[in-house]
Amino acid sequence: MLVSGEVKRRRIAGTVVTLGIVSLLTDISSEGIYPLIPLFLTNVLGAQVAAVGLIEGIAESTASILRLFSGWLSDRFGDRKWITVIGYGLSSISKPLFAISQSWPQVLGFRFADRVGKGIRSAPRDALIADVTPPESRGLSFGFHRAMDTVGAVTGPLLAFWLLKSLHLGFRPIFWLSAIPAVLAVLILITFVRERKTKREHVAPPSIKFSIFNRNFKMFLLVVTLFSLGNSSDAFLILRARNVGISTENILLIYVLFNSVSALLCTHAGDISDKIGRRNVLLAGFLVFAGVYVGFAVVKHPAAVWGLFAVYGAYTAMTAGIQKAFATDLVGADMRGTGLGAYQTLTGIALLPASLIAGFLWDAVSPSAPFYYGAGMALISAILLLVLFQAQTTCTDM
Predict the structure, then answer these.
(1) Residue 142 near residue 270 (C-beta atoms within 8 A)
(2) CB of 250 closer than 8 Å to CB of 238
């Protein structure tokens, strides 16, 4: 009975599986075109690398403000599903519009709309996952969702590679085709996700103030925001690969390798964090990031880029889902949407200065400089994580 009870508790809920499928299809759309956007900007539209940093920074950070409000709204009204639908819907409409872009400000506008959609959906969707998952399985569930998300990130670039290499399509037709899986994801979300409603008559709605959060959660926000200040857009990794001689087609395959490693390790990393603590896995992730960024700073040979992207996939597996599970551990059930929104907002806002600094360092110093900066910020964040969370902070502590 004990074994069967443990298996039952560790089972991944059907809602989590369905949301994983939705994310898989969305990432086929998003990640199929994401590696092409910085190349489209620099090679087709003639934009400078600093403009790429500006686009990624503004789109990600400004839209991230919505994550806090959308999470709060989902807590306030208890309707997470339809806020999530609105976010996915906006992204599905905006993605193919890159095909009509004639200048980098237009790309900025469409990229911004896409990220606004992500900002609207992320916190309510993650709260939906937390609502149907027991505390002892949060790492497993968030890791599984991240793995499904990453399977889409593998499939998308593979399809883009096939369209480029075999059908000889250009950037713009591929942008148009990206709408198909995005729309399908929205239809599945509307049709198959059922929200678990909770009674809220006697629960005061959470306010959007950082004073409502406990000390541990505030320390967590400090650490991950500082880390994000050095974690510029992955567009710079793509541009660095191109800088050392990787072709456009091979960049797509490298991106497939990166996401494949992440997909293979995400669920396992989340499961491990349930057993040994979020802090330990997250600390390892920060250190791996620092090592990879030093590697990107000094890399000379194209072959080494493949290995660096593979290890970078391990870093994402050790951080992306675990950070969400860590944040969920540190806030109450009635504040999950607000807490996850605060986490995603602060880390997203940090992308603006991170990407602006990276673009400036690339143009003004050297292509290696942004990666030395990112590695340094990761090491500082790792030290803070070790000092501020000396005791293991896991779901069993709450």
Answers:
(1) yes
(2) no
Whose CA is closest to 367, among 315, 298, 301? 298
Q: Which pTM does this prediction carry? A: 0.75
Mean pLDDT of the chain: 85
pLDDT tens digit sequence for 127-186: 888 888 887 787 788 888 878 887 898 899 999 999 998 888 999 999 999 999 999 999
Q: What is the DSSP letter of 396?
A: G
pLDDT given for residue 263 in this prediction: 80
How far does Cα 155 stand from its chain's mean position?
17
Q: Which residues contact 334 (CB under 8 A, 6 or more apart)?
A: 75, 200, 203, 206
* Cβ 305 vs Cβ 311: under 8 Å: no
Cα–Cα dist 294/184, whole Å: 40
Hey, what amino acid is at 37?
I
Q: Domain 8-194+212-397 adopts which CATH fold?
A: Growth Hormone; Chain: A; (1.20.1250)
Q: Is the pLDDT of residue 323 over 80?
A: yes
Domain boundaries, the chain: 8-194+212-397
Burial class (CB in 10 A: 0-12, 13-18, 19+), 132: middle
Ranges of H-type helices in the chain: 2-9, 14-33, 36-39, 49-77, 80-94, 104-131, 138-165, 171-177, 179-192, 215-230, 235-243, 248-276, 278-298, 302-329, 336-349, 351-364, 369-388
Distance CA 189, CA 17 (A): 11
